[in-house]
Amino acid sequence: MLTASSGQQPQVQIEAYFEPSAVTLSNSSAYKIIIQGSQNSPKGSIPNVPGLEISNNPKTFRKVSLINGVTSIKLELSFSTRPTQKGIFTIPAWPIMIDGQPQTVPAATLRVLAPTQLDIENQQKQNQQQQDLKQAAFIEFSMPREYVYEGETIVSNVGLFLWDRMPFTRIENAPVKQSEAFSATEFGQPAEKRNVIKYNKNYTSYSWKIGLTSTTSGNHSLSYHSSVRVRTNNKRSTPFNSPFFNDPFFGFGREESIKVSSENKLIEVRPLPKSGRPSQFNGAVGAFKIRSKIDRDHVSLGDPVRLTFSISGKGNFTSMPAPSFEKNKDFKIGPPAFSFQGDMQTKFEGTQNFEYVITPLTPGLLKVPTLYFSYFDPDLEKYQSISSVEHPLRVDPGEKWVDQGNTRSVGEAVPSSKRFTTQDLFQTESEPGVWQNTFISSSLLQSIAFWITQIIPLAAFCLLLFIGLKKRYRGVQSHKQQEITFLKDLKKYLSYNDSKKFFRCYRSIIQFKVGLLQSHPNPYALSSDELIELLEKANKEKDLISKVRLLLIKFDDYEFAGVDQKTLNLKEEFRQALKIIKKLK
Known about the structure:
By secondary structure, the chain is α+β, with helices and mostly antiparallel strands. Helix content is 23%, strand content 37%.
């Protein structure tokens, strides 16, 4: 054991050592750093030592004690270390920052010996378990060929296989693509299939069909990752020691999240050839045919005409830009509207419609401008160019309105000699009806029907607002009453010294309070990990989240792990519970 102390802060002492200090090649050790005099997390980087793999996520232990009337503060960091070769390895002294002051971690040495026969057998058993675990849950995906062209869209089938003998509870997320060289359509609802035989085992498969589009040329690896939850035994050393012989259904267990991956596939993305590329080519890759139509062929000058240009076939519809017109002085052409019809899951096969609004600017017998479309066919490995048919359009010059009668300017008063009274008007037999004494309309505010139509919706709105506020008040009162009931039960179990029911009630309170923070419909079904995620979404203090995480671990230990309950101090637990419950608001 090596010790170092800082001259600037004599109260801070640092120790560094391996535990155990000698291991065989197939075993691991713990690189421990003990800091006395501070509980704050240090800042620094462990030096790289060839032959040693040191974890980046240490286990942290903090302890405060009173020795001979003096407060002792201790922080322990434990890094898992696995050797990759035999020999003697030394981590040299390295700098570290504690409470803003520079300190030095002393050197530490680890001896790595040759593996024993038992180590070799254990390693073989561990490798077999890892291989079995890969066969318990895995992802497979298929592609039509091992190469694609840049910008090409292909249909890929991604399948998640779960062994029927494993107690999987749910799929946390659909497979996630692990490559920046491809873009993919969204994963929808999977197709489920049972009793799928692989590796002489029965599986349940969940498959997704997606459209995969390459973005950059070159050789790129592609894989998929997902996460599933499985119920396991209450053993903390591993998620499950042996997934093929444990029986988590016997008694209680816990849910663990495991990562499921596919194999990496190296896919060649070929660049599009430059030779023979048409000037109208704008990135379409696939096999297509086109069709165009106009909504009418005879209009007046200034009337709009709708031109629909449809591209049908198989290809990269998700990244296909609209074809453009050549410059034309006879028409004003607006930007197109897009619409797709076909396989909405992959966007690979269907019809892409582009609707243009064109307005003729000159009269006469005109021709609607031609649209040119070029694409690259990956099966023929060459470019193709097609164009729309000519659409004749007759444009009439229209008519001009000339007012020959009244040339008086707007707003000019009518001469008195031209004014009419009701005595000058008469009613004809061809237009029967009630005689009107005036043509001046009455004010809308004087209408009873107007006020009735305004008051009825206003009254309905006020009634709904009152009912909503009343329900909300009842909900708040119900939550308060439920919390009071929980605290009464907690005091009751404290008086009975019933630790098991005490901690069950304590967990229910935390689930209830965290559920209120995010308005969860069923907070009592939340697992420990889900409770921590909700607290992080609510932006609660890190110290509070850390305390709740330790409490949830403690709940599981006292509930399932058979921890000795004689050392419990329920009064102290009750006082701490009141503080934490108060902060969960």
